[in-house]
Amino acid sequence: MRIFITGATGWIGSALVGDLLARGHDVVGLARSDASEERLHTMGARSVRGDMTDHDRIVEQVRLADATAHLAFTLDFGAFEETIDNEVALLAAVGDALADSGRAFFAASGTPTNAAGTATEDDPLDPDGPAGARARTASAVLGLADRGIRAGLVRMPRTVHGEGDRNGLIAALVGLDRQLGVAAYVGDGRNRWPAVHVGDAARLVRAALEGAPAGAVLHAVAEEGVRMRDVAEVIGRRTGLPVGAVDPTDLGVFGALLGGDQPASSVRTRGLVDWRPTGPTLLEDLEAGYYTDGRA
Description:
Layout: E1 2-6, H1 11-22, E2 26-31, H2 34-43, E3 46-49, H3 55-64, E4 67-70, H4 80-98, E5 104-110, H5 135-144, E6 150-156, E7 159-161, H6 169-180, E8 183-186, E9 192-197, H7 198-211, E10 217-219, E11 223-227, H8 228-239, E12 243-246, H9 253-259, H10 267-272, H11 282-287
Parallel strand pairs: 1-2, 1-4, 2-3, 4-5, 5-6, 6-10, 7-9, 8-12
Antiparallel strand pairs: 9-11
């Protein structure tokens, strides 16, 4: 298949490009810079220059492709509502271009929180929750399935980990711990984060593009919930920092993230598509030193 990817040189996008090429697909990635274009060409993919504001160019590539993976998102807290408005408008244009085509369009989103327990694929995103900032765009993607498009969501857990991760939440947590002088957790540290290795996340996106049904909501969750006390203990052991509880109010926005409990399941996903995660666990990647020994 010819597959178009936004966010093709990002953390998950880069892994997806390699996976798709290995499967013999023709890959075209959206590139914002010369460096991004060069990276795509080095991997063996083709590129088209543009960013998320270039709606006409993106829609043209979506129309030419058999399937599209929409992984790009511009995180600009200074213009957050405008960013969401732009993405929703882009998705409307995609709907007009692909209506009744049956072609695939899968977008990345985040796993939700279920206050009663472990979140499943049936749980909606809470607009006020950790992944809620993109609830409006997630709804717009699922709306495409009502227009004859094989559209759906691949919801990513709070940490998509692996060697080379420099910008994810675990990398940010290690950096914050170094600033605080303590491998931190909140409360008793029994709160949990779901996790997946980046290679497994990419394979699920590929499985979605190749055959997931319209309206599918998939969870890229390998581990339903890793206790943050366990994470802190590995970070402490690898860095030599003491391990201890911190007041979340001292951490700003990160305090709510560090202290939140957000286990999530992928049982339904594994029954819907052929996906079985095989990559290292989060604690294994931490023990390997990817996040603490200057090798991330």
